[in-house]
Amino acid sequence: RLGTPDLEERLKKEMKGLSLSLPMPALAGDVDILKLVGPGRQQRPSALFGPVPTVPKRGKAPKKGVKAVAVAEEGLEAVGSDADDGSAGLARALMMEENARLARSVSIPESVQKIMKEERADGQPPAPLDADMAQRLESIWEALEMPLKEKLGILVKYSAIQNTQYLLKSIEAWEEAVNAVRIREQALMKLAHHIRTEDEKQSDLFLREQVSKSTSQCALVATKLLMEFGDILTYRGMPYTEELDGSIEDSLERLMEIERKRTG
Question: Which InterPro entries match (predicted)?
Answer without folding.
Answer: CCDC87
